[in-house]
């Protein structure tokens, strides 16, 4: 199964939803023109880390920025995933990624499980309580967000359940580019799946975001990687490669969960 994937490596303006929406729309339209099946937007692409104003930005997953994203998915007939601030319950907010189908339907939603203390997420947000694995036209797909990358248990959970691809919206800042690249490759190699990670660019407060959005194949090979400027990067991947790798090196058959 071959699919075309685009990564919208955005420079996100802090708290400026309409500005960011215009940027995203332009990139979504271009991804559709390129024939992409799915476009991945960064973490908190509509607001960046404007957490102090989370109550003004957050919406239920059927309203606000989520409804606008669903409408764009239907308009351009493309799958879209990227995280925004969500209203979970009164006074409770999440960092939530929703995968929308090309008809604007919600295929899956995932609220970030691991909150990043270095950017004060735990002060403003509520962590999610479950992973999100969804069956798509190209196969089983897992969702995760940024800091989740440092927790291998989540991705092993997805892989054991049959996932062949992970989508990871992110705001991963300097100076940890080496961590970003190493962890993306490690998660792809150890779980024998495709890793699709979209990271933002630009500066917010004291944080400098370096981009380098990437698609890594199940061998750990970088299919495509962005630079440090705003850009839409696109590549075709063949999901059958995950099956080939798992047959070549059957790590899931050789696991010893009875011991560890």
Sheet-strand content, in percent, reads 25-35%
The quaternary state of the protein chains shown equals single chain
Number of strands: 14
Secondary-structure element series? EHEHHEEEHEEHEHEEEEEEHH
Dominant shape = globular
Strand order of the largest sheet: 5-4-3-2-1-14
Count the DSSP helices: 8
Please give the alpha-carbon distance between the first and last residues.
Answer: 34 Å
Largest sheet: 6 strands, mixed
Portion of residues within helices: 25-40%
Gyration radius over CA: 17 Å
Overall mean pLDDT stands at: 97
Task: Describe the protein.
With 260 residues, the protein is α/β, with parallel strands linked by helices. The protein is built from eight helices and 14 strands. Strands 5-4-3-2-1-14 form a six-stranded mixed β-sheet. A six-stranded mixed β-sheet has the order 6-7-8-9-12-13, with helices on one face. Strand 1 (2-9), helix 1 (17-33) and strand 2 (38-40) form a beta-alpha-beta unit. Helix 1 (17-33) runs parallel beside helix 3 (64-76). The longest helix has 17 residues, at 17-33.
Helix and strand layout, with pairings?
Blueprint: E1 2-9, H1 17-33, E2 38-40, H2 54-57, H3 64-76, E3 79-89, E4 92-100, E5 106-111, H4 121-124, E6 132-136, E7 139-143, H5 152-160, E8 165-170, H6 177-191, E9 194-199, E10 201-204, E11 207-210, E12 214-216, E13 222-225, E14 231-238, H7 240-248, H8 251-254
Short recap of the structure:
With 260 residues, the protein is α/β, with parallel strands linked by helices.
Keywords for this structure?
260 residues; 29% helix; six-stranded mixed sheet; alpha/beta
């Amino acid at each position: 199964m071959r699919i075309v994937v685009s990564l919208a490596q955005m420079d996100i303006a802090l708290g400026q939803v309409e500005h960011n929406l215009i940027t995203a729309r332009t990139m979504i339209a271009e991804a559709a023109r390129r024939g992409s099946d799915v476009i991945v937007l960064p973490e908190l692409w509509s607001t960046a880390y404007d957490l102090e104003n989370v109550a003004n930005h957050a919406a239920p997953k059927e309203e606000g920025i989520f409804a606008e994203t669903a409408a764009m998915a239907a308009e351009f007939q493309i799958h879209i995933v990227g995280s925004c601030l969500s209203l979970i319950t009164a006074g409770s907010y999440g960092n939530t990624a929703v995968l929308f189908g090309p008809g604007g339907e919600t295929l899956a939603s995932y609220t970030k499980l691991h909150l990043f203390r270095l950017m004060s997420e735990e002060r403003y947000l509520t962590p999610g309580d479950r992973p999100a694995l969804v069956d798509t036209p190209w196969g089983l797909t897992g969702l995760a967000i940024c800091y989740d990358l440092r927790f291998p248990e989540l991705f092993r959970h997805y892989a054991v359940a049959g996932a062949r691809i992970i989508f990871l919206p992110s705001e991963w800042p300097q100076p940890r580019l080496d961590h970003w690249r190493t962890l993306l490759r490690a998660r792809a190699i150890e779980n024998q799946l495709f890793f699709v990670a979209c990271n933002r660019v630009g500066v917010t407060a004291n944080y400098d975001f370096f981009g380098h959005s990437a698609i890594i194949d199940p061998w750990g090979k970088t299919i495509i990687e962005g630079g440090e400027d705003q850009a839409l990067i696109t590549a075709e991947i063949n999901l059958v490669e995950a099956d080939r790798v798992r047959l070549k090196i059957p790590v899931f058959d050789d696991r010893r969960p009875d011991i560890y």
